[in-house]
Amino acid sequence: SLCASGDKNGQAMLWDLNEGKHLYMLDGGDIINALCFSPNQYCLCIATGPSIKIWDLEGKIIVDERQEHYLVVRSEVGSY
User: Fold this and answer.
1) CB-based contact 3:17 (threshold 8 Å)
2) Residue of 14, 19, 39, 43 with fewest CB within 10 Å of its CB?
């Protein structure tokens, strides 16, 4: 079984639970808030402070990244 853990330094660690050993590390780039495997376990989604990165675990490369965007809405008092 494959397991992933993340830390406040932005490092995601991949583990082989059957063998009880560390496999490799991925650089998330910022504090890791959440990790999620794709159903086939070939990709890992890493949520950091400003972004979400999707890693291809076979190639150990980022295949997609989404940045945080802000929407500013301004309204005068009493109107929308």
Assistant:
1) yes
2) 39
Q: What mean pLDDT comes out for the span 9-23?
A: 95
Domain boundaries, given as residue ranges, for the chain: 2-67
Describe the strand order of the beta sheet including 32-37 as a list of residue ranges: 32-37, 43-48, 51-56, 61-67
Supply the pTM of this predicted model.
0.77
Contact present, 63 and 43 (Cβ < 8 Å): yes
Q: Is the torsion defined by CA of 47, 53, 56, 57 positive or negative?
A: negative
pLDDT tens digits for range 31-41: 999 999 998 88
Residue 11 CA from chain centroid, whole number: 10
Mean pLDDT computed over every residue of the chain: 87
Question: From the DSSP assignment, how many helices (H) and strands (E) are in the chain?
Answer: 0, 7
CATH 3.30.70.3550 is the classification of domain 2-67: no
